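Protocol step 4 of 5: obtain the predicted structure for the target chain.
Materials: sequence only (see below). No template structures provided, no constraints applied. The aim of this step is simply to have a reference model before the mutagenesis design in step 5. Sequence pasted as it appears in the construct record:
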Amino acid sequence: MKANAPEKLYFGESDKGILDIYSTKESDNEVEYVRKDAIVEKALAYLNSKFYFNNAFYGVVSTDFSAMEELFEDFRKYMEGE
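Step 4 output (structure tokens):
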């Protein structure tokens, strides 16, 4: 289903009352917007858990996580449009 809504919305301090009104889902036809930083953090947590699980599962033992940390930082920057 293609949403009939803008790709981006901007809210500031003066919009807190509006955000309180629209913070609950009322029907299945509504578009859900998620803060960019929240979705990036959730994606990074998922990737982090998968990397550690796969390394342990396949017996990869390493104390050098700098490459993985750099990958995560590059991913964060890409997702945030930096």
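Step 4 remarks: The first helix runs from residue 16 to 21. Residues 53 and 78 are 24 Å apart (CA to CA).
Proceed to step 5.
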